[in-house]
């Protein structure tokens, strides 16, 4: 008798669904496609010379090199955690290394927090739209999603309050240059979010993946910093996820969770049971590269991505027909497109790839309730300025034709 694999695989694993974003990354490799699909950094901006130096320095030092190839502690290298703690302190967040766990990218952080906090039927509040990768991490625990609407200042507080009043006690939020919309919260809305969470004793999972990629406007404190200013960080409301993937290099797979000590202690046990620790040599390289590169490399990234964003916004204004609107992000990598209601962005993508040779991510994938059928995410990060403008013009012509059918 053969193994009945569908019966062997547990319900948590069967809850997973394929990522449209990961599938579309394959499309971006075709040179004829102008891709606004992948939410990845521009590889032309990777600081290769610095990485060459830090790898050489590390492996050239026999004692440090051998240590970097050995097992390490599950919490993460103390020097790297101290660097992160110092960087957080510069933003007003009062944490020490015992509040920090190094993870294999922020995505592992999402997975670990899902396993720590979620279970079948437990409610978690999400922005509409929200980061697809977070929903994938959460879905394996089979929670109940409570979607709340967003306006230009952030989540609608009345809806957040109602969700907490009905029993939800966890919210996943992205206050800075959100993936997928590029939107950010105002200061008043950040304070209102925290006040509402404290009112109900709720936990906020703050995704800070793009917070360093600010191109204009006032720099606002994170929810973590505002929470720390309120009292004891070990009794705080906010758990923050950070990463070097958008500022150093994704392949390092270095992220972190900043949380109260009781949370970190439990996560360390999970880390030990899962993969023991993040690659020692990658942690060492990240520490050395960040120490050498920041803040000057951040300024390079900000200048390059600002220019790409400006080209995309200009092209949208020049070419898009009436009835199409878009976000105007002050940072991050994304512009959010809202199409006329009669246009299905999934169907539009098929024609865009075949006829216009342009790729994007249909917006419906980012909604926990599968709404947003006429929305799309555009990334300006990886294409050249010329191809951005060309791609937007092609896409606009296709939208105009679809809208008139």
Automatic annotation (TrEMBL):
The cofactors named for this UniProt entry are: pyridoxal 5'-phosphate
Q: Which residues form the Aminotransferase class I/classII large domain?
A: 63-395
Q: Which GO terms describe its molecular function?
A: DNA binding
Keyword DNA-binding tagged: yes
Entry keyword Transferase: yes
Keywords on record: Aminotransferase, DNA-binding, Pyridoxal phosphate, Transferase
What Pfam families has UniProt attached to this entry?
Aminotran_1_2
InterPro entries according to UniProt:
Aminotransferase_I/II_large (IPR004839), Class-I_PLP-dep_aminotransf (IPR050859), PyrdxlP-dep_Trfase (IPR015424), PyrdxlP-dep_Trfase_major (IPR015421), PyrdxlP-dep_Trfase_small (IPR015422)
Q: What is this protein called?
A: DNA-binding transcriptional MocR family regulator
Recorded source organism is: Thalassospira tepidiphila
């Amino acid at each position: 008798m053969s193994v009945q694999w569908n019966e062997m695989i547990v319900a948590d694993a069967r809850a997973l669904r394929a990522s449209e974003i990961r599938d579309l990354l394959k499309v971006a490799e075709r040179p004829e496609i102008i891709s606004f699909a992948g939410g990845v950094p521009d590889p032309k901006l990777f600081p290769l010379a610095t990485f060459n130096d830090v790898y050489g320095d590390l492996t050239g030092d026999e004692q440090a090199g051998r240590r970097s190839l050995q097992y390490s502690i599950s919490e993460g290298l103390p020097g790297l955690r101290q660097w992160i703690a110092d960087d957080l302190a510069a933003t007003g967040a009062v944490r020490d290394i015992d509040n920090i766990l190094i993870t294999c990218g922020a995505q592992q952080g999402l997975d670990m927090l899902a396993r720590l906090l979620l279970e079948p039927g437990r409610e978690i509040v999400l922005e509409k739209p929200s980061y697809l990768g977070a929903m994938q991490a959460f879905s394996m625990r089979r929670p109940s999603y409570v979607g709340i609407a967003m306006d230009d200042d952030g989540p609608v507080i009345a809806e957040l309050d109602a969700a907490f009043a009905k029993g939800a006690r966890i919210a996943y939020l992205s206050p800075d240059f959100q993936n997928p919309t590029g939107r950010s919260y105002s200061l008043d809305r950040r304070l209102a979010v925290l006040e509402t969470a404290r009112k109900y004793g709720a936990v906020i999972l703050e995704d800070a993946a793009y917070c360093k990629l600010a191109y204009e406007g006032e720099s606002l404190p994170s929810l973590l910093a505002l929470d720390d200013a309120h009292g004891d960080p070990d009794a705080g409301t906010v758990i923050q996820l950070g990463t070097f993937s958008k500022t150093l290099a994704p392949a390092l797979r270095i992220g972190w969770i900043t949380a109260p000590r009781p949370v970190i202690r439990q996560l360390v046990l999970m880390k030990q049971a899962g993969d023991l620790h993040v690659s020692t040599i990658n942690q060492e390289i990240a520490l050395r590269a960040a120490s050498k590169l920041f803040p000057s490399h951040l300024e390079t990234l900000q200048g390059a991505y600002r220019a790409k964003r400006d080209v995309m916004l200009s092209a949208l204004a020049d070419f898009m027909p009436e009835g199409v609107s878009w976000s105007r992000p002050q940072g991050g990598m994304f512009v959010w497109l809202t199409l006329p209601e009669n246009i299905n962005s999934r169907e539009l993508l098929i024609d865009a790839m075949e006829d216009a040779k342009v790729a994007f991510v249909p917006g419906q994938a980012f909604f926990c309730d599968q709404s947003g059928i006429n929305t799309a995410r555009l990334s300006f990060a990886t294409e050249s300025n010329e191809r951005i403008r060309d791609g937007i013009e092609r896409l606009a012509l296709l939208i105009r034709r679809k809208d008139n059918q």
